[in-house]
């Protein structure tokens, strides 16, 4: 909800001609993204699709955030939280100057999404109100999976789900922290303030040297 409010209400960041265009910031994710770099590169090279991708992402963020706050279809929204967090983690987990900003947001989102899926919502949620009033929608088996209530699985199976999910998130936490920042072993590094620089297409023509310099900001200098 905060992102939706900031991008559309406080300031229109969907105008490709404006200095704060959200697509320009998305371009910064490209150099060191993990696993999804081809997707980011394709979107950056097709501005029309990039605009739609940013619009869809923002709307989904707003819907997921609003429903989580209201406690409506909580478990389904927790899957949205998990997915959005994974996108942030893989795309921009390496960003951050004084602290590991985006990495922390991504990891927290993964852990929160998984936890909320297991627990569902509490007594102050719309899900609980619907269950307490015995609305017809709560009698369907799928409501327990997408809304709240007791998950219809055996306790020993639930224990395996909790253990497997926890170990998986722990692995993702350690692996991405090491990959992006070297925070598990070895020297720490911060690609945001110490970017990798690549020089390509260097040539001398008419006593003039020309080349292209690529940095983490994906800007090209000639």
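^ structure tokens above, recovered residues below v
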């Amino acid at each position: 909800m905060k992102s939706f409010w900031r991008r559309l209400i406080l300031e229109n960041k969907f105008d490709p001609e404006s200095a704060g265009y959200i697509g320009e910031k998305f371009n910064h994710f490209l150099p060191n993204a993990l696993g999804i770099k081809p997707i980011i590169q394709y979107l950056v090279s097709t501005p029309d699709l990039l605009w739609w991708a940013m619009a869809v992402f923002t709307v989904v963020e707003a819907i997921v955030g609003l429903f989580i706050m209201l406690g409506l279809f909580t478990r389904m929204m927790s899957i949205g939280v998990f997915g959005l967090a994974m996108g942030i983690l893989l795309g921009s987990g390496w960003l951050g100057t004084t602290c590991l900003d985006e990495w922390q947001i991504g990891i927290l989102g993964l852990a929160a999404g998984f936890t909320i899926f297991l627990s569902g919502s509490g007594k102050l949620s719309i899900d609980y109100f619907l269950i307490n009033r015995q609305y017809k929608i709560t009698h369907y088996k799928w409501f327990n999976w997408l809304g709240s209530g007791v998950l219809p699985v055996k306790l020993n199976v639930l224990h395996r789900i909790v253990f497997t999910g926890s170990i998986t998130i722990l692995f993702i936490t350690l692996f991405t922290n090491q990959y992006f920042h070297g925070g598990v072993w070895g020297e720490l590094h911060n690609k945001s303030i110490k970017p990798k620089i690549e020089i390509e297409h260097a040539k001398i023509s008419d006593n003039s040297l020309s080349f292209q310099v690529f940095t983490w900001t994906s800007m090209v200098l000639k």
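Residues 195-222 form one domain.
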